[in-house]
Amino acid sequence: MAARVLIIEDNKANLELVEYLLKASGYATLAARDGAEGVLTARKERPDLIICDLQMPVMDGYEVVRELKKDPQLRSIQVIAVTALSMPGDRANVLAAGFDGYLSKPIDPETFVRTVESFVPPDLRARRPTGGS
Fold it and tell me: Which pTM value belongs to this model?
């Protein structure tokens, strides 16, 4: 079975793009439109991977990762920050805050799933047809 990925994103277009790319690659997705909803969904659903925007209403991505990493049942879940922040030092700050990975917006559809997949345990990676006869 392929991984279940929780996407925490307040921008509807970005959320739909990430959902589309992951579903088209064989992953199941869960969605939350703000950080507080994302933490509740993570606690309830126990996803295999979390993709989280940094700048959101109610609870920003930094608060989300703090909540997730202090919960013994959630701290082992890989959390990837996806953000428009791209100043020097932003990546280091994001990783120091507790995120396991960092992707910048705009999302590149050609490389997004492959990059996200590097955070998915091998046994939970989606199986894609290899082509051939």
Answer: 0.92
